[in-house]
Amino acid sequence: xxxxxxxxxxxxxxxxxxxxxxxxxxxxSSRLRYDELRNLVLQHYGGNPPKCHCCSxxxxxxxxxxxxxxxxxxxxxxxxxxxxxxxVRELIRRGFPExxxxxxxxxxxxxxxxxxxxxxxxxxxAAMHRx
Length: 131
What we know:
The protein is mostly helical. The chain has 4 helices and 2 strands, in the order H-E-H-E-H-H. Helix 1 crosses helix 2.
């Protein structure tokens, strides 16, 4: 079979049953489309260029979405709210609902595991020592 994208003759096993592009080309195009949609969501919630709302990191590979309201409000049992491409598409579909912020992975993990990010804790500690 010949891939409609790369025009390479490949064995049938290199294609899915329903597509006319090979798995490699399909994965590349899917990744590019996801990156476009993810950037749209990051820019909406984190500005342009998107940055962590806590420490201002701007490296897109480090940026994540964090919920600032309880996830049950968004139907967390719904598989569309589990993260990744489903979450990105669902946020766009719902018109970018409030309740999400952009955080770098470090700030997101710290606030999830410790309850507060070290950047915020340092600011709180400094304010307490001044009083």
